[in-house]
Amino acid sequence: MEELNEVYDYAREHMQKSLDVLKKDFSTIRTGRVSTHIVDSIKVDYYGTPTPLNQVGSVIATDAQTITITPWEKSLLSDIEHAIQQANIGVNPNNDGETIKLFFPPMTVEQRKESAKQAKAMGEKAKVAIRNIRRDANDKIKRLAKEKVITEDEEKKGHDQIQKITDEYVKKVDELVKAKEAEVLKV
After folding, report:
1. Cβ atoms within 10 Å, residue 8
2. Are 144 and 155 in contact (CB under 8 A)?
3. Domain extent at residue 93
4. Which residues fall within 8 angstroms of residue 149, CB to CB, at 6 or more apart?
5. Which of 62, 123, 135, 163 is deepest in the core (most CB within 10 A)?
6. pLDDT band at 70 (very low <50, low <70, confident <90, very high)
7. CATH number for position 132
8. Residues 49, 117: one domain?
9. Could you give the count of Cα atoms lying within 13 Å of 64 in the half-sphere of its Cβ?
10. Co-location of 112 and 181 in the same domain
11. How far does Cα 115 stand from its chain's mean position?
12. Is 63 helix (H, G, I), strand (E, B) or coil?
């Protein structure tokens, strides 16, 4: 039975990783409130090295529609401004000589629907990953049965348990997607 517990642990651990990836993916979706995660992927040329924006200055959401970037060194202002323009995140940087402000207009109904659709697609991707993990776990159980490490009854119980774990994680994905859609569509 210890072998089966190892397979269950494998399945849970990897399915949890799929959930964590989904949560990270969700942070890139724009909701009614602007999030500093929108600029996470922007790299600034810092003395010849592409450096994440949040490592060359402070990045804060000052209100629901504004992100303010204050560089540690004033000489970086134009490099930061250029990097933001290159990233094409849908807003133009406003440089006041001290900070750079990004003003995000309120989302339209269409943009909200598009973001909700994006969330649903990310959820489907996570479910596919979870089902692939289920398949791998079931293959491991079959191998254990074939090698006579476990009995046929234990094999059947193993497959049933893997299905329960899978259902549990698919349900978690559905709940996350539902919550994200509600957050995106809320005006």
Report:
1. 16
2. yes
3. 36-103
4. 3
5. 123
6. very high
7. 1.10.132.20
8. no
9. 7
10. yes
11. 14
12. strand
Mean pLDDT of the 60-77 span:
91
Are residues 96 and 158 both part of a single domain? no
Q: 78-131: per-residue pLDDT in tens?
A: 899 989 888 887 788 999 999 999 998 888 888 889 999 999 999 999 999 999
Closest by CA to 76, choosing from 65, 84, 87, 67, is: 84
Query: Tokens 């990270």 map to which residue?
Result: 24
Which pTM was predicted?
Answer: 0.74
In terms of domains, do 87 and 19 share one?
no
Secondary structure (DSSP) of 128-177:
HHHHHHHHHHHHHHHHHHHTTSS-HHHHHHHHHHHHHHHHHHHHHHHHHH
Same domain, 116 and 167: yes
The two most distant CA atoms of the chain are separated, in Å, by 73
Give the per-residue pLDDT at 150. Answer: 92
- Whether 11 shows a pLDDT value over 90: the answer reads yes
Token pair in block for residue 47: 């003395």
Structure tokens at 32: 């009614």
- pLDDT tens readout for residues 141-167: 999 999 999 999 999 999 999 999 999
The total domain count for the chain is 2
Asked if residue 97 and residue 47 are part of one domain, the reply reads yes
* CA distances for 159 relative to 16, 136, 148, 171, angstroms: 19, 11, 16, 18
CB 184 within 8 A of CB 31: yes
